[in-house]
Fold each of these.
Amino acid sequence: MTVSNYPLPRANAQTQPYWDGAAVGELRYQCCSDCGSVQRIPRSLCEQCQSSRLQWKVSRQTGRVLTFTTVHRAPLPVFKDMVPYVIAILDMDEGFRVMANALPQACAGLEIGTRVRVGFQDVHGMALPVLEAALEAAP
Amino acid sequence: MTMNALVTGAYDTAVGSLPGSSCMSLHAEAAMGAVADAGLALSDIDGVLCAYSFTEPHLMLASVFCEYLGIHPGACLAIQAGGASACIMVMQAAALVASGQCRHVLVVTGDNRLTGMSRDGAVAALSEVGHPQFERPFGISVPASYALVAKHYMHEYGVTSEQLAAIAVEHRRHAGRHPKAHKREAITVEQVLSSRMIADPLHMLDCCLISDGGAALVVSSRAAARDTRGRAIEILGAGQGHTHEHIVAAPSLVDFGCKSSSAVAFARAGVAARDIDVAQIYDSFTITLAVELESIGFFERGQAGLAAAAGELGLGGKLPCNTHGGLMSYAHSGAAGGMFHVVEAVHQLRGTADVRQVPDAKLAFVHGDGGILSAHCSLVLGG
């Protein structure tokens, strides 16, 4: 399977700052300048008040595991060499969400509620967020 | 109360592996069957609703179907809401006939996913429902998305894999009573737990089938229903609930749109969950049904799997559920998967469910879930 079949993210005008940030090792998120709410994932307007006055901020890259799964059956041929792999949804401390795979050293003892740090890994030439390390056991 | 609309015809094709079938041939067979069941002629049909297809994808599937069948209705459109499509189509058909825009609406679904594209092909196509930038790059699939819900839900309410497996076991028991079911041989909790892990905690036997098949209904206005032959089933209530599309953006991993969709449907029908005699509820995975049964109020949180193990979802149980075997054991053919639930409810309310019959079934609840517990539609039907 060639690299071109990997479903890499294709940034659009609304998400370009997110992926530009990833490329320089910054995890960015959107905050509404009108109502102050933090968007779960980036878009062109605030999901709470629909204002388009959104501000990009830089995350401290720490959060908690909301949930995770270990995938044993790849949905596409391009993921077959990766199985088994972990997919986690992370509730970041600033209030946004990240879905990411987990580095092998971060998987041991991973639980719901575990505090984690997000980093980046190169996937076919693109920096994607990754669950880099578990910081402590779940409370 | 009432929606002023009745199901006057229902039909489903054979299901499973149907070599030689196509999406449109299944649509046509199901449609002709439903119209005949209603005792109508094709010329009586003045509205057509279709859903979507993986094997014959088209921007205008309802127009493709009407051309294929050679009919020219006054209203024709396609509805795409994943597993909620069938129930939403019924709700929309009810609106068309209740408003006087149509007299008899044909609601038709079908796909030959198993022989037309293979299991791998279907799994790959389904993975495209993931968010292209924030989910798909991480190898997400529909089973993995439901596994993310399962892991969280089980953690919150102390649900075990054994309890979820009991749901799959009861579905297979139901399917064993249906001569057409795709999978009929009995399974045990141990077999579910030792089946291949797909995405932890969901095993192969926690997951729905991929099947060929089609199903159709005729929905008629009260006045037009007098022209029909079969026993009409009243659409007493309907409701929808929508909270998100992508699981990464879901506001909650324990509360979903089924809560509001069922509340609206029950209120419109003037009934409560405890009044329901038989339920046909979307069961794409064991966790799907557990979440829905508990969110809708049929069981307390964390109790659905235990109830299944105690036989409460079986014939003679507190809530006979998915008496045809559901998506896990009867069949899953895209939008037709949800339509099989509606057709089975019609059988139950007409008293034509043979050895699957729930005695004296007068009130049925049908529920569809699209996406990752994203789009929900509930129906209350009365015999």
Note: Residues 11-58 of chain A form one domain.
Amino acid sequence: MRIKIIFPILLIALAVIALALRSKHSAPAPAPVAAVAPANSSAVPPAMVMTKPIFSNAPPAKPILTVRPHIDTNGMSAHDISIHEEIQKLSQLQANDDAESLHEILSDLTNSDKTIRAAALESTIQFASRDAVPYLRNLASSTSDPQERTNLIEAADYLELPSWTEIHQQDPNARLGKASPLANDPAPEQ
Amino acid sequence: MKTTFRAVSACALAAGLFTVGLSSAKAGVIDNELADAVNVKLTMTYTGNNGKIKKMRVTSKDLVNAIANDWQENYSGDRIIYYYGNDDFWLVDKHNNLILDLTETEVLYTDYSDTSYWEKDGKNGSYTFRNVGIDWEFEFTSYGNENWDSSTLALYDYNLPYFESGFGTPIFNGRQFQSDSTKESFAGYGHNYDVSKDDYLPCVGTVTEIGSGILIGL
């Protein structure tokens, strides 16, 4: 009688232990919510989803923000627009007469973008200061592109010519006929 | 292409969307109209009193200085633009304020005619265009056309070939980025009172107009 009681108890106890061990080794079932996609899944742009870096020593991933442009560029990148803005800035700087503006223009002669370099050269010419000549010649000597080198040298040669303003300032009364037009002979011979 | 920009402006005005006064602070746009910077790069040649050939350069800054000289005004730092607001050349200051209408005062006049024109229109008002044409007349007189002889600096050429190109991005939220550039070869004459009174002097070089910016309310 005692065996009839003890044996089933032992069997039940073993069964409980076996179930406990089995549940320890098996993974829990995935949560049901994970299997169901949210109705408005597009509300969160994929770019906003943070992912764990593959390598533990990798820098923490920066949140990628989706910045909506002010205009639909349709193939025109923000870089393209920034080029145009830089060219516009150059066209304003060229009207100035201060050294800072010239320095800013000259710094764009070594810009990585060829279009900006060309615009900077045009602005250097329009700035119309002979102070730019040594820089242009120096840059030409270190420029590998033959066409750009030629353009730099031609710009330097052009700036070395006397300007209308310089000639006029030497004899501002010439217009009034108070001086012989060719008396000063200000321009160097070519 | 000037007519295209005019058409866009007219449509915007008719739709009541045109917002004068909301001008962009960016260069290239004044009162929501494109403004092209005018870059003159010319070489004027003359004979010195010793019989040798001499040259001088004439840039946009010289044109501004000549205007200032003849109009007895201080236009230092100002620049010449082509303004699509009224299709005239203007003198503008550093803050993009329109100072002097150079076309109205007959200081600077051109007569562009696109003889061969190509344009491709895209979605939402986007476009690309290229054209070649003839500028039938280019005339600069620092004191106005009526005062050619007494203008300190004058330039004249006719039948100048020119090339123009530009584009506009699709209009998005009423905004559009527009760009325009024109280049013409100058091979005419001018006079410089300082060296030759009213004699005509050979003058060669280029005149370019370039501008871009974001227009709103389209």
Note: Chain B touches chain A through 61 residues (CB under 8 Å).
